């Protein structure tokens, strides 16, 4: 190639597919208008559906490294751009946008690849970092250095945490330290934005640079006084101008602005540009500060933890507002009853201004109108309310098209007008809350209600307080998130949209009170959508002690009694980019009536697919539960003994003395060691009744330490087991019953069922509770023992107690259990894949699910499962056969593609591997050209495609193994059949 243009690169890397820009691709001035920074002028930018940005800059000559470093610094401060492409006619450089700026050699250190301008290099660039590589998550597999942990939000919060800690360590009051940091950040923003010039700063405080001003207490006092008089409102605490700290503290803040390492004294590059950093990130500083509150020796946790305060990631804010504000006009009012630092309100302000800007010229008056009349919040923390006000003012300044002169920017107070400090339960009953939230004798109604209310559980005192305020409505047994939703409903009208982040526990709990509370809210707000965020707990809410869901209501047109359930899966890229991946198979739909009959279906829909939900419901309909059948045998599952500490050992355990003692680490699959220790304590905290330890005993371990199969065993001697186990003492002669149950509970069917139904496993913890086990649907025990599968299971359990089973032994056991339950071939796939999906609760399993699907084994199993469904449909007429062609793409390809061809005649279905002559991009273009469809463009809108031709269908999906499991094949085949009945010809 003689040289390359920007258009050449965009076409080669998939950003300009099918002769048109991919959705999200902007050029020239349009690209710059969507940016916070103003110095770097990209020639093109692409923004993904998850808000990640990629920038493209074309230069006739290779730009100096210091120029690239300047571009990168601005991009890094935006916080959403992992990649910068710098294109020259003879060379292409790819830079890491998340790499923190450094003083020297920034461009060299953060350049992740250079491509020569040759055809092979362009193909490599596409495979490694093209649009499909980003959309499918393959980019993060290819480049380990691109990681959000080095991005501006992590770095800024880390630095401010240490700054606040140092100020407090030197004796400065924490609230004053936080106020000082806020004032300094705001001043630096004014300087970075050019609202305050060095000349004006010198006039105000005698110095042209902020660090110089801060190093003199008198000058700092003059600056802070000017800020309070000029900007008014609630920008700072009332005493902020009168509490200028001593020089040593001011010097520490000045050191921060000059990037002086507090330990070494060395100066580096100050990386931050506060005119570029998202204002929402400034809002999150409060949450960072809140978690920094040290616990006193008498307290078990910090105030933030007790109140359930969590740092709300900007990507989560975008996800909530993308949904809840889709299609609104811009005149709506927004309420957050637990607004914290205002992160939801800041983004809502930005979006409302943009929406009104479609029909009006964006002026300062328009922005202030939205600020003063459309965005409302409340919080019990005065500090939080002040930060919310500060953040909203900052956002209003950022949106202001001409923020000059400073003296004209004075704000009206927000606190007492749109922001109120107080308890959300009684906010309208007194003071400013009455004025803000009452219109005459009625509560004010809002059009959009959002937020992340506290999740925390405050013990018996907190429960008593909540009972007083909730009235007769059902209340969740622990925590108060749903109470806040009920309270928010009082501020809503029939069309109010809701988008609220909540603890997942009441939605998936097996507690009757928890289920009742969740169903009550769901019925009040129907139609609703529940988004399961549990898979993301490790990074989305790293400080939380429980998983989360998002509850959306009335935000999309859907049947009134419909519950849409969305599972956001774990992905390799999620934590590194703080973005979300959702595919069609991650979305399920239920009816409220079905949920009321079988509440467990909500959990199944949140972790499984449609066939999982159907099989769970079928099992409940067909069989009685284990608990019911044990009750008929006059026994039950019991939790074992709690020994407790010596001070709690107050109950007599004399009846158990001398019995063998089974402890947590003793049990092996199907086997209880013969040489157990002896229980010899006269007392215990909860010894339980002697009768629960009588043989024959079925013993089940609560925790799932090594994998998703339950550990079970049968004891033919009396023994004491601890509360690490559940046990069922069977009637005399019930050894075969115990072995039958041990075999069933150890099967992949049971692992699948507990993944779909257990209150904690699959959502929160790697354990099953006693009630989870008791709920397992079970063929009638007496019938099972008389049939061949039941007899075989008893035999297998007994043999495994002598010789520990291997993988093949357990697979054989699984098949016998399937026989006992009468599962057909497709239901067996559901349960078998359930065992594999249950391994995703461990990191190794998650990584396997995200690894590229093997063209051989994985893809062949997928195609066979797909053909089994399609062939069953075709065989009704007996005239057609389906064949599979698996395209033999390289392992590093970001997609996998299978073509299913329907042919005439009685041939047997078969899977073939088809060689691919060119690249993945070539293959997609060839398929699109042959079928006259814009496949590359469509892949931007949905991450999975079914593309139809005459008597053929192509399945195109990301390469990750989780997309190509056999259960996915069943779901995809169901969709093809359904679409064919609706008029598409397979």
Explain this structure.
- By secondary structure, this protein is of the alpha+beta class.
- It folds into six domains: 141 residues, tt1808, chain A, CATH 3.90.1570; 125 residues; 145 residues, no CATH class; 149 residues, 3-Layer(aba) Sandwich (Rossmann fold), CATH 3.40.50; 223 residues, Adenine-n6-DNA-methyltransferase TaqI, Chain A, domain 2, CATH 3.90.220; 131 residues, no CATH class.
- It is 43% helix and 16% strand.
- The chain contains 42 helices and 33 strands.
- The strands form eight sheets. The chain has a nine-stranded mixed sheet, sandwiched between helices. A six-stranded mixed sheet has the order 1-2-3-4-5-6.
- A hairpin with a 2-residue loop joins strand 10 and strand 11.
- Helix 8 runs antiparallel to helix 13 and helix 14 runs antiparallel to helix 19.
- It starts with 5 loop residues before the first helix and ends in a 5-residue tail after the last helix.
- About 3% of the residues have low confidence.
Topology:
Layout (H helix, E strand, L loop, with lengths): L5 H7 L12 E3 H6 L10 E4 L5 E6 L6 H14 L4 E6 L2 E6 L9 H5 E6 L2 H11 L1 H5 L2 H5 L9 H18 L4 H20 L4 H8 L4 H5 L2 H15 L15 H11 L21 H14 L10 H4 L7 H11 L9 E3 L6 H14 L7 H10 L1 E5 L2 H18 L19 E3 L9 H7 E2 L2 E2 L2 E6 L7 H12 L10 H9 L2 E12 L1 H4 L3 H14 L2 E5 L4 H4 L7 E6 L8 E6 L4 H6 L9 E5 H6 L2 H8 L2 H13 L1 E2 H7 L5 E2 L11 E2 L7 E3 L14 E2 L4 E2 L12 E5 L10 E4 L4 E2 L3 E5 L5 H11 L2 H10 L12 H5 L2 E2 L2 H6 L1 H15 L4 H15 L3 H14 L4 H8 L6 H18 L5 E9 L6 E10 L6 E5 L4 H12 L3 H7 L3 E5 L2 E7 L7 H16 L5
Parallel strand pairs: 3-4, 7-8, 7-12, 8-9, 12-13, 14-16, 21-26, 29-31
Antiparallel strand pairs: 1-2, 2-3, 4-5, 5-6, 10-11, 13-15, 14-15, 16-17, 18-28, 19-27, 20-23, 21-22, 24-25, 24-27, 29-30, 30-33, 32-33
Helix pairs in contact: 8-9, 8-13, 8-14, 9-19, 14-17, 14-19, 16-17, 17-18, 17-19, 18-19, 22-24, 31-35, 32-37, 35-36, 39-42
């Amino acid at each position: 190639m003689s040289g390359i243009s920007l258009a050449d690169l965009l076409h080669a890397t998939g950003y300009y597919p099918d002769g048109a820009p991919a959705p999200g691709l902007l050029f020239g001035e349009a690209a710059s208008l969507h940016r916070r920074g103003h110095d770097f002028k990209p020639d093109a930018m692409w923004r993904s559906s998850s808000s990640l940005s990629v920038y493209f800059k074309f230069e006739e000559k290779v730009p100096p490294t210091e120029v690239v470093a300047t571009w990168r610094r601005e991009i890094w401060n935006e916080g959403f751009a992992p990649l910068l492409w710098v294109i020259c006619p003879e060379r292409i450089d790819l830079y890491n946008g998340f790499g923190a700026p450094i003083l020297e050699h920034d461009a060299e250190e953060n350049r992740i690849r250079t491509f020569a301008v040759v055809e092979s290099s362009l193909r490599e660039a596409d495979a490694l970092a093209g649009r499909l590589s980003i959309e499918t998550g393959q980019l993060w597999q290819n480049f380990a250095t691109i990681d959000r942990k080095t991005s501006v939000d992590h770095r800024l919060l880390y630095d401010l945490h240490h700054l606040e800690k140092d100020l407090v360590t030197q004796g400065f009051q924490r609230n004053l330290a936080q106020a000082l940091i806020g004032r300094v950040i705001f001043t630096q923003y004014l300087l970075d934005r050019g609202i305050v010039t060095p000349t004006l700063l010198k006039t105000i405080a005698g110095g042209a640079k902020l660090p110089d001003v801060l190093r003199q207490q008198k000058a700092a006092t003059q600056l802070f006084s000017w800020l309070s008089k000029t900007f008014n409102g609630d920008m700072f605490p009332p005493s902020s101008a009168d509490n200028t700290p001593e020089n040593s503290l001011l010097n520490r803040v000045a050191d921060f602005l000059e990037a002086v390492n507090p330990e070494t004294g060395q100066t580096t590059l100050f990386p931050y540009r506060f005119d570029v950093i998202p204002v929402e990130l400034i809002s999150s500083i409060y949450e960072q500060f809140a978690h920094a509150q040290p616990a006193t020796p008498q307290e078990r946790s910090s105030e933030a933890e007790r109140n359930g305060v969590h740092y709300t990631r900007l990507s989560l804010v975008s996800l909530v507002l993308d949904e809840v504000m889709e299609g609104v006009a811009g005149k709506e009012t927004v309420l957050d009853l637990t607004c914290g630092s205002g992160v939801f309100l800041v983004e809502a302000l930005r979006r409302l201004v943009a929406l009104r800007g479609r029909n009006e010229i964006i002026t300062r008056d328009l922005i202030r109108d939205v600020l003063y009349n459309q965005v409302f919040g409340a919080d019990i923390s005065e500090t939080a309310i002040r930060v919310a006000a500060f953040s909203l003012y900052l956002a209003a300044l950022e949106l202001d098209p001409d923020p000059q002169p400073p003296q004209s920017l004075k704000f009206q107070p927000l606190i007492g007008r749109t922001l109120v400090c107080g308890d959300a339960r009684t906010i309208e009953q007194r003071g400013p809350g009455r004025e803000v939230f009452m219109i005459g004798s009625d509560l004010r109604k809002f059009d959009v209600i959002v937020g992340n209310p506290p999740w925390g559980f405050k013990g018996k005192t907190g429960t008593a307080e909540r009972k007083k305020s909730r009235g007769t409505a059902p209340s969740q047994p622990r925590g108060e998130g749903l109470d806040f939703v009920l309270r928010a409903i009082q501020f809503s009208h029939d069309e109010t949209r809701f988008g609220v982040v909540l603890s997942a526990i009441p939605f998936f709990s097996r507690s009757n009170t928890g289920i009742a509370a969740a169903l009550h809210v769901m019925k009040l707000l129907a139609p609703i959508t529940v988004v399961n965020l549990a898979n993301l707990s490790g990074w989305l809410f790293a400080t939380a002690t429980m998983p989360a869901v998002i509850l959306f209501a009335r935000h999309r047109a859907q049947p009134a009694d419909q519950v849409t359930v969305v599972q956001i899966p774990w992905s390799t890229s999620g934590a590194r980019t703080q973005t979300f991946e959702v595919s069609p198979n991650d979305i399920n739909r239920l009816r409220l009536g079905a949920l009321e009959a079988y509440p467990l279906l909500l959990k199944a829909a949140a972790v499984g697919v449609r066939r999982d939900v159907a099989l769970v419901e079928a099992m409940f309909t067909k069989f009685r539960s284990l608990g019911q059948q044990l009750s008929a045998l006059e026994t039950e599952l019991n939790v074992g003994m709690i020994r407790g500490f010596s001070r709690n050992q107050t109950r007599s355990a004399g009846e158990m003395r001398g019995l063998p003692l089974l402890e947590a680490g003793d049990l092996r699959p199907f086997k209880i060691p013969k040489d157990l220790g002896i229980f010899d304590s006269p007392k215990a905290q909860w010894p339980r009744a002697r009768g629960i330890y009588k043989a024959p005993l079925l013993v089940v371990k609560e925790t799932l330490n090594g994998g998703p199969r339950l550990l079970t065993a049968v004891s033919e001697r009396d023994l004491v087991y601890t509360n690490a186990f559940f046990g069922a003492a069977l009637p005399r002669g019930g050894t075969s019953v115990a072995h039958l149950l041990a075999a069933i509970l150890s099967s992949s069917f049971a692992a699948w069922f507990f993944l779909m139904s257990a209150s904690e496993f699959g959502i929160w913890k790697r354990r099953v509770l006693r009630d989870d086990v008791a709920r397992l649907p079970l063929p009638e025990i007496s019938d099972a023992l008389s049939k061949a599968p039941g007899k075989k299971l008893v035999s297998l359990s007994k043999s495994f107690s002598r010789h520990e089973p291997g993988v093949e032994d357990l697979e054989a056991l699984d098949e016998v259990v399937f026989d006992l339950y009468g599962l057909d071939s497709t239901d067996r796939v559901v349960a078998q894949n359930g065992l594999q999906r249950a391994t995703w609760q461990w990191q190794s399993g998650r990584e396997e699910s995200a690894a590229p699907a093997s063209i051989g084994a994985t893809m062949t199993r997928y195609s066979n499962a797909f053909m089994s469904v399609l062939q069953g449909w075709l065989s009704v007429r007996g005239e057609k056969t389906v064949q599979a062609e698996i395209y033999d793409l390289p392992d590093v390809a970001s997609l996998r593609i299978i073509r299913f061809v329907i042919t005439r005649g009685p041939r047997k279905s078969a899977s073939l591997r088809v060689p691919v002559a060119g690249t993945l991009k070539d293959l997609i273009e060839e398929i699109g050209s042959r079928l006259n469809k814009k496949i590359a463009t469509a892949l931007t809108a949905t991450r999975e495609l079914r593309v139809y031709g005459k008597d053929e269908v192509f399945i195109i999906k990301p390469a990750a193994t989780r997309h190509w499991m056999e259960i996915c094949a069943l779901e995809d085949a169901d969709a093809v059949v359904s679409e064919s009945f609706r008029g598409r010809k397979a």
